Amino acid sequence: MTIPSKTDLELASTAVKKLMAAGADAADAIAAAGTSLGVSFRMGKLEDVERSEGTDLGIRAMVKGDDGAMRQAVVSLTDTSGPALDEAVERVIAMARIAPDDPYCGLADKSRLATDIADLDLDDGQEPDADTLASRAEAAEKAALDVEGVTNSMGAGAGWSRSQVALVTSDGFEGTYSGSSHSISCSVLAGEGTGMERDYDYTSSRHLSELDAPETVGKSAADKAVKRLNPRKMKSQAVPVIYDPRVSGGLVGHLAGAVSGSSVARGTSFLKDRMGEQVMASGLAIVDDPRIVRGRSSKPFDGEGVAAEKLALVDDGVLQSWIMDSSSARQLGLETSGRAARGTGGPPGPSTTNLYMEAGKLSVEELMADITEGFYITELIGMGVNGITGDYSRGAAGYWIENGELTFPVTEITVAGNLKDMFMAMTPASDLVFRYGTNAPTMRVEGMTIAGA
Question: Where is the signal peptide (predicted)?
Answer without folding.
Answer: none
